[in-house]
């Protein structure tokens, strides 16, 4: 089963504004790009053509792993607004 | 000065730690506001799967009669996996004693918060505390998205990421080696099939811990829990391992699920939820400063997790309770200085929480150093032993035993063997002395 099928089972309320902000200049210089493989919800994708990180914040499970592993301190991580983000039915 | 929105205690985070703190304070007749960012308590929470009976009773003496529980875990499997075999040890308790129950956090945490409300706690949900209000080096309140709240004491139970503890200067940034990522799937199988596949009855549960594959040589473990009609299967792995091996966590989980020892247990099941959460695994040496002027931290926010024993919610509940007791003492004394709140640290030190974490203080450093031996070589060796032991191939047993012993002594550098032995002794000494 791929990650999109897994994420399709998660209940979200999506905010129109992102709660995850990256500094593209830092991401561009970053060699490791750990966020692109460590995130359990595949939030971060590197777009080679546009040379930028795409942030699929609407998939975020709010675990916080990206913030800890980011070598460039590029991710400004905060919790989504009170009514938005993930709502686990089981957890 | 009379402040608007002023109460005696604010607790941030309505998980096991925050609810236990708030309920302890409310039961002592003091004012307490409990602030939760989720739509309801538990809506942002996720864990492996079980809460512990005795510690839960300390907060909710009658919970077994009223809380939404899944199964009483009478069976505990420890399974060593390599690519193509496994060895399992099972402990089964048939005495009707209950050590732990599987629960669904969105139901159980919500139930706990309802109990807290009955005790007089004011619960505010859907509210994110963005920062602490600090005045003259003392925490005097919290800023939420909408308004500010003030209190004599703020208890932080805002979970592993606790940005607030960082803002308060109580802890530094985490390092990837001190934090594990937990991911899991809840798979619907049906009650009857679960009973059959795990050889248990309706309300009986089975916990399985997986060592080794697909994380051989890495600081990661798999787990499986039985709920009423669903199974939880997941894993926890240290972030530094994922970085080192450039692994996607959900790909590891797919590998775990497809192992022949596990796949028949979840066969035909339907995935109904996927979730992720961090686990603080730095242990005793990484516990932050847990109190300061006007503030205390409890539960995951304070890194109170005993990972070897899969304990976290119990440490959260009891630390929350102790922080609550300390808050009550401070209110009665009308002194919220760090000197008064140091009682919290004294209480924690006297409890099993700090004693256990101190006992295991060398565990994680040793595991990081010796992961290729304890989490790969010896695990494989155990499975190899059983493979050799059962093999019927017309070779004499003595020859086989000799070969096994010879290999054990030669395939690994004797210095490595000695080092492993010394580490084991150090660990055991730390625990038993």
Explain this structure to me?
The complex is a heterodimer of chains A (91) and B (433). In chain A, the strands form three sheets. Chain A has a two-stranded antiparallel sheet with strand order 1-6. In chain A, strands 2-5 form a two-stranded antiparallel sheet. Chain A has helices spanning 3-7, 24-29, 35-38, 65-69; strands spanning 12-13, 20-22, 44-47, 52-55, 75-77, 85-86. The radius of gyration of chain A is 13 Å and the shape is globular. Chain A has a domain at 19-80: Alpha-Beta Plaits (2-Layer Sandwich). Chain A has 91 residues and is α+β, with helices and mostly antiparallel strands. Chain A starts with a helix and ends in a 5-residue tail after the last strand. Chain B has helices at residues 16-27, 53-59, 63-66, 105-118, 163-167, 191-198, 239-245, 249-258, 263-266, 313-333, 338-350, 352-359, 363-369, 371-390, 397-410, 414-432; strands at residues 6-12, 32-35, 50-52, 72-81, 86-92, 100-102, 122-124, 129-135, 138-144, 148-156, 179-188, 204-212, 220-226, 230-238, 270-280, 291-292, 295-297. Chain B is built from 16 helices and 17 strands. In chain B, strands 1, 2, 7, 8, 9, 10, 16 and 17 form an eight-stranded mixed beta sheet that branches. In chain B, strands 5-4-12-13-14-11-15 form a seven-stranded mixed beta sheet. Chain B has a two-stranded antiparallel sheet with strand order 3-6. The interface between A and B is large, with 35 and 49 residues.
